[in-house]
Amino acid sequence: MKDIFVTRTVRIPDPLRISRYQKSPELGPRILFFSGGSALNDVSRVLKSYTHNSIHLVTPFDSGGSSAKLRRAFDMPSIGDLRSRLVALADETVTGHPEVYELLTYRFPLKAGKGELLHQLESMIRGRHPLVEPVNNPIRRIIRYQLGYFYDAMPEKFDLRGASIGNLILSGGYLNNHEHLDPIIFLFEKLLGVQGLVRAVVNDKYHLTAELEDGSRIVGQHLLTGKEVSPLESPVKEISLSRRLDKYTPVKSQLRKKNHKLIQKAELIVYPPGSFYTSLVANLLPQGVGASIAENDCPKVYVPNLGADPEQLGMNLNDAVRRLMHYLRKNLSGNAAKGRQLNFILLDSRNGQYPSKLSAKLVEELDIQVIDTTLISRRSAPYYDSKLLVSALLSLT
Question: Rounded to whole angstroms, how far apart are CA atoms 89 and 31?
């Protein structure tokens, strides 16, 4: 069998192609995103109207937010971003399950007392809570069971204030399935009618660590983002993984065969906007990710951040592209080293505020093509318009 490569002229946006996808989203393209965080959730909500086959590989290395309590209590991967993306891709049509959606997106109140919160959780497990009662069996029974498993494993001093019920169900399912995320994520997809595929890039419970230009080192995703603590004062020199959060313990992570196959099946690979290191690069750290990308001949596109990302201190647009390529090419050998990791940079130079202009010399050096088109509307400025961005991505498939 001989491989034949076919090229075509692309129109952005391509109304005919977009219209065809909208009529039959169940037959839509397999667009794969490497991302975590909430930056891509609006895009995901738009995307599901055009394809139910998008693939989202999400980092499990976060150490902040509500997931931090669960990580400390159960020594588990981060699940907050997984739950957030699953919810964004949920079926919101009349064929979906709005009562399940309402339950899985519910958070316990921040100001309630411990006794009241325990009572709420116990009433959910018994099926007597007003958010649980409308859910039909067998879905209700499944939810009660996973919550019960979480409850039985929950440390006595666990703080339920602000806890997401979706996170508690995912945690219970993780513990109940021999500390594997895939079975409970699959179940979550069925409960919500998720119109896409969401997976943790690896099942490992590691933490992000960064060596800074000033020679110091920080361990923990929450110390990089500038959201829970003060922003970085020194640029990031190198990012890697640590087995522990309390001290730097270098460790390697390996891409799973299941996710290797998902990357191989992708028809378009996207490095989307979001926190540069903790949402994008974190997904590229496991060994095997770069090789899997290089082995797939589909188009790969980078959509750079607009404005100032605290994680990109001291970086201009050219630096961002070089850093992305550094992690994509890391540990490559053999045929994978000859593959392509990036074909296009998609941006809107007319309306977007980028850290710098993109160097023509760099574009030529990397042999990539810049697609400069309208991605920002009056309504969305200064951010990308999700509808325009989705239209551009669909046009490339």
Answer: 14
Q: pTM for this structure?
A: 0.95
- Would you state the structure tokens that stand for residue 392, as one six-digit string? 């551009």
Report the relative pairing of strands 236-242 and 207-212 from DSSP bridges: antiparallel
3-state secondary structure (DSSP) of residue 47: helix
Q: Which of 262, 82, 93 is nearest to 188 (CA)?
A: 82
Encode pLDDT of 243-295 as tens digits.
999 999 999 999 999 999 999 999 999 999 999 999 999 999 999 999 999 99
DSSP 8-state class, residue 133: T
Using one digit for the tens of pLDDT, what is the confidence trace for 282-320?
999 999 999 999 999 999 999 999 988 999 999 999 999
CB neighbourhood size of 384 (10 A): 27
Please give the DSSP secondary-structure letter assigned to residue 278: I
* C-alpha distances in Å from residue 229, one per residue of 38, 140, 198, 306, 353: 18, 39, 29, 22, 25
**């007003």: which residue's tokens?**
130
Cα 181 to Cα 97: distance, rounded to the nearest angstrom: 23
Exposed, middle or buried by CB within 10 Å (0-12, 13-18, 19+), for 234? middle
Task: For domain 1-59+254-397, give the fold.
Answer: Rossmann fold (3.40.50)
Domain definitions of the chain by residue range: 1-59+254-397, 92-193, 207-242
CA dihedral 103, 105, 109, 113 (to 10 degrees): 60
Residue type, 68: A
